[in-house]
Amino acid sequence: MNKLQIRSLEQYHENYAQSVSDPEAFWGNVANEFQWMKKWDRVLEWNFTEPNIQWFKGARLNITQNMLDRNAAIRGDKTALIWEPNDPHEKSLTYTYSELLEKVCVFANALKAIGIKKGDRVCIYMPMIPELTVAVIACARIGAIHSVVFAGFSANALADRIEDAQAKLVITADGLNRGAKQIPLKRVVDEALEHVACVEKVIVCDCLNWKPSMKAGRDIWWKDVVEGQAIACDPEPMDAEDPLFILYTSGSTGKPKGVVHTCGGYMVYTAYSFQNVYQYEEADVFWCTADVGWITGHSYIVYGPLLCGATTVMFEGIPTYPDAGRFWQVIDKYGVNQFLTAPTAIRSLMAFGEDHVLSYSLDSLKIIGTVGEPINEEAWNWYHVHVGKGRCPVVDNWWQTETGGIMISGIGNISPQKPTFAGYPLPGIQPVLLNQEGKEIEGADEEGYLCIKFPWPSILRTTYGDHERCRVTYFSHYNGYYFTGDGAKRDEQGMYRIIGRVDDVINVSGHRFGTAEIENAINMNKLVIESAVVGYPHPVKGQSIYAFVVCEHEIPKENQDLARGEIMESVVAEIGKIAIPEKIQFVSGLPKTRSGKIMRRILRKIAEGDVKNLGDTSTLLDPFVVDEIVEHAIK
Ligand code: WT7
């Protein structure tokens, strides 16, 4: 892939200009670096009104042929995947390109043997173990659509996602390791499946030797299903626009939606963005600390690196186990050259002081990345000085589940860096800032709504089973633009700074939740009549969740902690521990307009502790409710 690599700032500007003046020539040229079973008739056809976006129309390919067969042929003995276990004393595992190809083919044949076909949906709910990566790629091998659900989600959340995708198969494990804890997974799957009818089979991987109960006729062990399977499996020919996967993500309204990515465009863009942002060279080792359950793991642990013939590290554990030096130890252990993590991880490690990071050399590092939420200047500096030793560029990757790949970011050591600025758009990405009226803002240093005015190959195509929802959510706010939901600023050099969400989405430790989703979970509790949830700044998590809750009966002070615990349980049951509100305040009513709309603006200010600037409250249905909330606000 290094033919695609941008080598200088000048070249970046040239490529960028070409990608805007002739996008079809630009992306056609990039796409020519891949193996296609049949070339496209047309590079791009699109409109943002339906929306209908088709890249490489008429082409046929299989993404796994480009990840595995192609690399096995030219670098078969190169390590494709390094797996580092949760416990540093346990044995790590490595797979060469040839070995990974074989593992994937064997499992792909197993999937076929149990009746999984092209187009079927397969839900993957697994620990961060090599079998997760194998399962993902094996689905792509046979054209089954994977829907990976992060293993921290609850049974109800899992059931919703299985049901929405109408998955036939669930792939899971007995349980998972997370630092000093072990967490059951199979039990969660069993509970989820009590409520859904579409699942025919469950494949269970043995991770902890727990021997969970197995339902006869439905549940099969991984080791049994792969037994005797052939080591070759032809890649299924796919249309460029056939779905590759579904990944659920939260928005400002309703239940999480299944973002759909397709085979051709996603392949081209994840490889292109990986190669450039991380300036990958043949002998390099790349490590992204995300979980494969999120888009970052899909694009930059699995697909992007393997498409580029890279060595990619997959880490089962957490940054603070057995101690806060774990990341740095792993970097030295494998000589990691490019490292990608989240601001929340950086901030939590900062709190343990410099000693941990100073005990490791980190000499191998060349480029360090950050992703998932805005990074504050203090964390940026700490990362740059103590991890990057002032010598590695920090690339701040702004993108979204919906964009499939990195959109705005530094490019290795090629483009300028500025703390808290993500930087320039990658070639092919045309961001604009819009004002309230939907007009493009031209000048510098003004804040606007971040939109994209032209398609790129890995833009979402639809939301699964509900195309209208895709249109309304992303393409109806501003005519002719994809709306990101983020606010941003642009400086005089054209660099972008992402400010944060302008909709009702909260980003807690890089995890994305809709306020409505958390409110629904809280309202499930029998004590509760209604609730309103807002985000407020948190020193480590970026944002944290503050819930204002109206109960059927007033809860006496001495019982409030108990009631809080029960409400948290409801959130754990509906979504998972990751969505627990940090603060729960019982209130007698919520500030509403006369038309019944909750004034979140006011609640946000209260949650931030900024009670002097509540703005005009006179139009509220009951202005006095605000005084009561302010008086009892949780500090
Ligand atoms: C939202 C997308 C990017 C993949 C992981 C999260 C925020 C993401 C950055 C960044 C500032 C960022 C945005 C975006 N975000 N990266 N570098 N700087 N904000 O994907 O769960 O789909 O969340 O995360 O608000 O809209 P996601």
UniProtKB/TrEMBL annotation:
Q: Does the keyword Nucleotide-binding apply?
A: yes
Annotated GO biological process:
acetyl-CoA biosynthetic process from acetate
Supply the alphabetized keyword list: Acetylation, ATP-binding, Ligase, Nucleotide-binding
Listed Gene3D superfamilies? 3.30.300.30, N-terminal domain of ligase-like (3.40.50.12780)
EC assignment: the record states 6.2.1.1
EC top class named in words: ligase
Which molecular function GO terms apply here?
A: acetate-CoA ligase activity; AMP binding; ATP binding
Where would I find the AMP-binding enzyme C-terminal domain in this sequence?
517-597
List each copy of the AMP-dependent synthetase/ligase domain by range.
69-455
Keyword Hydrolase listed:
no
Domain spans labelled Acetyl-coenzyme A synthetase N-terminal:
12-66
Give the family this protein belongs to, as stated in its UniProt record.
Answer: Belongs to the ATP-dependent AMP-binding enzyme family.
**PANTHER family registered for this protein in UniProt:** ACETYL-COENZYME A SYNTHETASE (PTHR24095), ACETYL-COENZYME A SYNTHETASE 1 (PTHR24095:SF14)
Record protein name field: Acetate--CoA ligase
As recorded in Swiss-Prot or TrEMBL, the protein's gene is named acs
